[in-house]
Amino acid sequence: RRLTATGSITARRWKAARLICALALLAVAQARPQFGTRVETVQSRGQDIIVAVDLSPSMLAEDVAPNRLERARLAILRLIGNLDGDRIGLVAFAGDAFVQSPLTVDYSAAGMFLGAMHPELMPVQGTDLGAALRVSLDALEQGAREARVIVLVTDGEHLEEDFEAELERAVESGVQVHVVGIGSPEGVPIPEYDEQGQRTGFLRDEEGGVVTTRRDEET
Fold first, then answer.
1. Do residues 53 and 74 lie in contact, with contact meaning Cβ atoms separated by under 8 Å?
2. Dihedral (C-alpha) 47, 121, 129, 179: value to the nearest 10 degrees?
3. DSSP string, 126-192
4. pLDDT tens digits for 96-143?
5. What average pLDDT score do residues 48-76 get?
6. Do the beta carbons of residue 154 and residue 180 sit within 8 Å?
7. pLDDT tens-digit profile of 175-203?
8. Pairing of strands 148-154, 48-54
9. CB contact set of 140 (below 8 Å; sequence gap of 6+)
10. I need a surface site. Which of 30, 72, 131, 134 has the fewest CB within 10 A?
């Protein structure tokens, strides 16, 4: 007590504060903070994959549980989960086709767009595999990768005539096309739903007969 009687309490407090600040600045320095921006070119190797999903009403058939569309959706989600550096895009098609999700490595976003795909999105009903291939090939041409793949998911009930021409275009462009057929070869009815998602019956033709659908193995 006698030795420190002439010392300054304020000075000791400032000394302690400076020591704490010095330790804090040392910790920040160890973290090596950097400021500013830098442009860096990163080369990515992988495939460009377009998955074209059939959204015709027949994809609501329940010959596979819970229905064809949901089974296709689960399979595509498994595919997305196995990708690493590959870009994936989605094309929706029925009587016409459009890009639902452009090529991306944001797999979460692709999964979100996939979850929104439903027959109600399609302004034109039917099944035009040629349109699906045409739009998919156009989407792949916007990419720069040599390895390009189209996965066509459908029940195969093709109603148009330009599929073979687009398939030849894919072969000439070096694009691999994998066709995934979904559904059973036995005929099953197509359910109809109201705005609340409740089933109201089955799709019928103009004569009142129940319309059935089957996986078209020939196509």
1. no
2. 50
3. S--HHHHHHHHHHHHHTS--S-EEEEEEE------S-HHHHHHHHHHTT-EEEEEE-S-SS-EE-EE
4. 999 999 999 999 999 999 999 999 999 998 889 999 999 999 999 876
5. 95
6. yes
7. 999 999 999 988 899 888 887 777 888 88
8. parallel
9. 48, 50, 103, 148, 150, 173, 175
10. 30
